[in-house]
């Protein structure tokens, strides 16, 4: 699929997309109530039809701080915060990234744009003009869904559920801590049928009913998930897993991604309660999970400030609620924050404080000295092998490219490539470069974050887990993903809501990554 890019006066941040990749406008996630959002737009006098609220957020394409004199009115200008956009424009999450977009809450959009209810870069509910005739992130691709996340929209956001309390999400008719101004606010402080997320006091699109504990086999936070047909061997007595590898009776692990405050250097806004509960949930999984893969972005701080260290300390304290091994991945916020940043000696952005602190606090305890590394795990009975290859897309170099080729050439039953940015984020140097290498080798799944939601793209064998505490995009709540090996060596992949332990989505893949039952 050919990429379509919008022009930008300062960054040239058009995102590419490949067939089936998670790009795009009108992306619909589980539980989206487009009709409800559309009705709200009509009430506000918008002349265009709303696209679904569940558009993706891949943080920001690549924009340094923009002085006021340079804040020109331009669609598809990447951003981190509102102050990088022109007066009357917001930094909004849509079409796979964060872009400056015109406020349409009190006026109509121009030709080729649609007034859309989305989340701001900081996670607030806003309405902006989203380009639809020439999307910022290219053509539309829809994530694959499963029966667990295809519930009715009436249950998720219709009139019958206005008083619903779904874990940490509070329905429109229930008084809560969210606040809106100049709108027709519901009792919960949101508008347009959105729910208030109590831990953050941010408004989110209506949740999927299955995440409220209504899905089969949803289990409970105390008992852990009840997933059929997975191996039930207790792994607690097996050899511990390290960066040097290890041995397990069954290949079971969790994925957690993107944990940071909504604003730069905002230590007080760090999502401590959310990431703490996530690690407590992972700890309570039964059978036990011997290790966790994380997909990057553990803080949001100025590149050379001391805030990074303080925020990573908060993350590591929360991580202390889990007794297994945790593997870390370099994200763009562990470089400069910009999506196109490239850190490391000899690279354009050099060695920032955030980069150094990440290496010291997260990787050094694992015995890892570079932000790219790999580990191989073997079955205790010798029946399978699995390698985990951690790519540092924001510290890309020719040396890493050579290393990646060599790692992927090693034959194993399973191959998991872990990287912060997904395939759509072509402004990050290491994404298209590593994708080109990956295309030449077999692999099971590409595990990424960067987009603050959960999604599965079967065509790319790509799983997005970016809902670990960063400002959410769409109706999927904070949570984590669990992979469990079946007796036939297939992997059951299940995404859980951290507050209810409801199943957000579940699917099964073979060792080569192809979907199965």
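Sequence proposed for the structure above (517 residues):
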């Amino acid at each position: 699929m050919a990429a379509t890019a919008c022009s930008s006066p300062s960054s040239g941040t058009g995102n590419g997309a490949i067939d089936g990749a998670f790009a795009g406008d009108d992306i619909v996630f589980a539980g989206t109530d487009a009709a409800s959002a559309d009705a709200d737009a009509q009430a506000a006098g918008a002349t265009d039809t709303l696209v679904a609220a569940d558009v993706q957020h891949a943080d920001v394409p690549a924009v340094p701080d923009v002085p006021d004199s340079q804040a020109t009115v331009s669609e598809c200008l990447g951003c981190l915060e509102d102050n990088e956009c022109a007066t009357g424009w917001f930094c909004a999450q849509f079409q796979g990234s964060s872009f400056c977009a015109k406020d349409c809450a009190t006026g109509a959009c121009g030709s080729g744009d649609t007034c859309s209810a989305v989340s701001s870069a900081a996670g607030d509910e806003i309405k902006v003009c989203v380009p639809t005739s020439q999307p910022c992130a290219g053509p539309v691709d829809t994530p694959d869904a499963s029966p667990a996340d295809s519930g009715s929209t009436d249950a998720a956001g219709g009139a019958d559920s206005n008083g619903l309390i779904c874990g940490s999400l509070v329905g429109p008719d229930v008084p809560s801590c969210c606040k809106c101004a100049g709108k027709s606010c519901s009792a919960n402080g949101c508008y347009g049928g959105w729910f208030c997320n109590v831990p953050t006091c941010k408004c989110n699109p209506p949740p999927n009913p299955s995440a409220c504990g209504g899905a089969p086999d949803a289990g409970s936070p105390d008992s852990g998930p009840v997933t059929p047909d997975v191996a039930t061997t207790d792994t607690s007595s097996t050899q511990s897993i390290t960066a040097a590898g290890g041995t397990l009776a069954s290949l079971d692990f969790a994925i957690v991604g993107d944990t940071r405050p909504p604003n730069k250097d905002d230590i007080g806004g760090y999502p401590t309660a959310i990431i703490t509960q996530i690690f407590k949930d992972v700890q309570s999984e039964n059978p036990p999970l011997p290790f966790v893969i994380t997909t990057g972005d553990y803080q949001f701080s100025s590149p050379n400030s001391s805030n990074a260290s303080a925020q990573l300390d908060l993350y590591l304290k929360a991580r202390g609620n889990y007794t297994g091994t945790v593997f870390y991945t370099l994200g763009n916020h562990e470089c400069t924050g910009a999506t196109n940043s490239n850190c490391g000696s000899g690279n354009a952005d050099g060695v920032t404080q955030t980069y150094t602190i990440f290496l010291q606090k997260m990787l050094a305890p694992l015995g890892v000295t570079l932000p790219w590394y790999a580990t191989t795990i073997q079955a205790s009975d010798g029946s399978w092998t699995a390698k985990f290859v951690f790519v540092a897309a924001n510290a890309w170099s020719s040396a890493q490219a050579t290393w990646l080729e060599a790692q992927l050439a090693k034959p194993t039953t399973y191959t998991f490539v872990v990287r912060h940015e997904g395939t759509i984020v072509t402004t990050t140097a290491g994404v298209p470069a590593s994708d080109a290498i990956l295309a030449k080798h077999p692999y099971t799944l590409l595990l990424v974050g960067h987009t603050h939601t959960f999604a599965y793209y079967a065509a790319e064998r790509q799983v997005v887990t970016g809902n670990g505490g960063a400002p959410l995009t769409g109706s999927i709540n904070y949570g984590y993903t669990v992979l469990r090996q079946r007796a036939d060596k297939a992997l059951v992949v299940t995404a859980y809501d951290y507050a209810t332990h409801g199943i957000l989505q579940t699917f099964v893949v073979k060792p080569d990554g192809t979907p199965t039952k």
